[in-house]
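Quick one - first record:
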Amino acid sequence: MKNWIVEKILKFRLVFILMGIVLTIFFIYESVQLKLQDDPNKWPPKSHPYVVLNEQIQDIFGGANVVTIQVEVKNGDIFNKETLGKIKRISDKVLLMDGAVSYYLTSLSARKIKYMRGTDDFLDISFLMEFAPNTQEEIDRIKWGVYHNPTLFGSLMSIDSKATLIICDFRLNHRTTLPKIYKEIKNICEEENDDNHIITYAGTPIIIGWVNSEGVPSIILAFFLFLIAMGVILWLAFKRVIAIILPLGLGLIASIWGLGLQKIFLGEVLHSASGFLVPFIVMAAATCHSVQFLKRFFDEEYTKVKESKAAIVNTFDALFFPIVLSLATDISAFVVCAFIPFANVSTVGSLTTFGLSSVLMCIILLFIPLLFYFPGTPKKLDLGKREGISYRVIKRTIQALVENSNARWIVTVCLVVILIISLTIIPKIDVGQDNTYAIHNFLTKSWEKNSIYQMEMNIKNRFHSIFPFNLLIETDKTDGLKDPEVLKKIDQLAAFLEKKEYIGGIMHLATFMKVMHRFLHAEDDKYFIVPKTKKAICEYLYLYDLSDPGSFDFLIDHDYKRTLLVAYADNTSHKTVNEILKTTKEYIQSQFNDDKVVAKMAGGIIGIMGAFNESVARWIVLATLLSALASFVVVFILFRSLIAPIFLLIPLILATVIWYAVMYLSGIEINSNASTSVAMAMGVGIDAELYLLYRFREEFARDRDFNRAFIESFTKIRKALIFSHFSLTFGCWSVIFIPLYIGYVGYGMGMIILICFLISLLLPPILWTTFKPKFLFK
């Protein structure tokens, strides 16, 4: 059957090559139609209460994609014609952007920010800065309005009057994407920068937008470094150009096919830029399989028969089942990832599944036919008979483990000690997700030099107001928000949050009522309190809204039953997010919620990160277990043995435990990206064990000598694995210095490949020699 397949491939090789080229062109056409629509609000599990609430808040009030712009002067203060003009122009341009939530805009020129001044005969409640000022009188009016509004300083205006904020929000759609928001905000702000003004901007749309636009060249550079590193190792392994072109070409073409299949079966929208990692993974798997094929072809079959067709047939006959079975386990692990409810993980899972599914077809249509034409001349075929240093080291290591019981005990004890140490480290890991720091590379600390991070720190140092934490407050009846007791509770909740060092400005309805109450009592600070009667609240709402109906659309729904309280945090670290959510939840449960009013948490990016933190640890554990289970099931079905998958997976499970400890000691955040590395361990990692098993059976069938068959098969398989796994490891590590999350993800992928290789080098000889399970001999 196998010989028939490969002979037909070689007989009609030109047809197969033409089919492969046509399909590749078709999939290129399909893949270029893919569109990236990254939305961090949709990354965590959709069913999580925080995600559901965030969507509800966004539909009513907005506040899910907040950008904070800071206008700062170097000399003087902001109260001059030029600076105030910039504030007005920036605010107006932001409002004209696609997806801008107009009523959310908060700045000195926003219609919700009022100028309030009264005399015995007249109350002036009007826009603070409806137009950019042209005269000193108009500037003085704005300055007076700011200085007589106690809520602006520290939240919208710096204490020294040298900087002010513009806070805006966007709804994402097919026209409004995070890269587009980032680019337009960047252009708007850069146009207003000059010698005396520093315009900075921050927020999740800025960070993710930068990664998905200006960060893409870094990812492309990382991929080229990845290819170069693997190419160097492949050259050292084969000293043949074709042995570089075929493996790398196989990975590239399979990646293109995977992208095309993604578009055909799952639509043209990619919901996470994590898909950029997929070519690295597909290249890793494709290289592993092609190196095994080429090593067998060049070093054994071609040197023996000295004819390419017969050598290909013999190689295909020996490796067909290992390749098919290995690809099945590779795919099964990433199928698990495709169903993990994090958009960044499921995107990697589905794309990689399609890419790995394409590898076998690419081998049949392109790899084997092309190898027939370009095998190289067999004039130096004694190369396959030479025992290089890697061959000798592996053979002596295996001989010691197979023939020397003391060596087995020493290695066993060392592995047990390493496992125990790793198990004591794992509970210390703070599992969570901080996607606002996609620019972070935890190995190089490169974010400190990133302009996006520097602008964020500039705003943080002045205002602490960057990342929104949204609470939805609901009353039990229409006009419930006009109840003084309800407003007082909202004000007390806001006061509780304001005491947190990581919270900057807060927007809530009670503040506006306090400002009006103080204003209508001759600006006496003792009246900066929530009014005591419903009548007063109704009057204040009417007066404040009189000059511009809809001023409170960003805070109140139409029937006054629901309102939004927004607190702005200065970071989204695990510690900060967890503390905000924990303390706020305790407060609203013990001191806020009653039969009249309820506060629901949490929306905004703080809520989204909270949803990640509460879910990611559980799903990382499940991903590890399910990936192992998927490989277990595949091996069990194909081998019809319960013992076989256990023996094959034990080294990989041990390697995974050690990997988590190594990542923690390396200072790497364990987040949803860990699922990708675990899938590689359980999928790509098991390939080595499968190739070893089939080669052992082949060798054992010759003379039924267990020790000779094991040493011979293990040595030959590991010789190929040295080059494939080290090319993958150093290929992944070549991206470490890329100043993006891909740097530490590449480090993690390379590390798990390396650890799997080392554990699989030491543990199987001990297990197989000690127990000699029956599945080895079938």
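second record:
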Amino acid sequence: MSQKKLKVGILGATGMVGQRFLALLENHPWYEVTLLAASPASAGKPYPEAVKGRWVMRTPVPKLAAGLTVLNASDVGSVAGAVDFVFCAVDMPKEETARLEEAYARAETPVLSNNSAHRGTPDVPMMIPEVNPEHAIAIEAQRRRLGTRRGFVAVKPNCSLQSYVPALHPLLSFGPKRVAVSTYQALSGAGKTFETWPEMVDNVIPFIKGEEEKSEKEPLKIWGRYADGRIVPAVEPIITAQCIRVPATDGHLAAVFAAFEKKPTREQVLEAWTGFSGKPQRLGLPSAPRPFLHYFEDDSRPQTRLDRDAGGGMAVTIGRLRPDPLFDWRFVCLSHNTIRGAAGGAVLTAELLTAEGYVQAK
């Protein structure tokens, strides 16, 4: 990577995930945030004014943002012409988001998206960089479809599955056939805090709209194969999910039950986890946690409050591996939903695509 930093824009910069992008990129060695964009309601305001009373990060508004005026994210020409690529975290209807992201791609500006609009698009890679970096090749087919030279859209998967998919991935050689998972998801996954959602204090809500479908289907695209210009989803394992909102600020905990074609021993499972290292770790990417997966022998871990920040919020922690009478094995795992599961995952994806030449200076 050259010493000259790439110019980055954040679309949806005033929301919770947009704020997380800004916080994570404050001192990034490769990228410099030079532009912030949001809805027309925020456009034209200095960024500190636009987020006044809405800033939810534990750290102050970064100095780099203090002098920036928020632009209208829908003004594609002005934004795209000023940056090398954008991160997208807009809060818009799915169809509008899809059109906006494709408009940026057609304007020759790569889009690294936190949104769900293009997760089902066959030539759009949906990436957990340690799990399916090979799907980056779909960008070539996407560029042919869009008629672009450098523009494309790449997305990260839903936050609900980014604790258990990385834990299952090193076990694929044993042929997982059936997986049942219950996720216990923090308030920030809904873009809220206890102050903005007081109904969650001392409460659990057993329904999160759309989460269970995403948790069951998106892993199959992640584990799919690239063929004839598209990513073909895998057919196994069959996944059934329940997604539950719990009164935690950050961190998604998952309870996983898995049955295998060739049941591994406990030692084999632990060896697969502790020995796993993905492409981001091998390339030494700036946001790659080392290790990616961490197993606790203590039965009381991982705990959301204690362990969500492992690896700077980018690692996945696992515990309580034990036999199951209906499946083969059960365990629990945890990831930080707005870092690994949202902004941090997109930043790591951008780093991988930069290292591989898909994201370059204009």
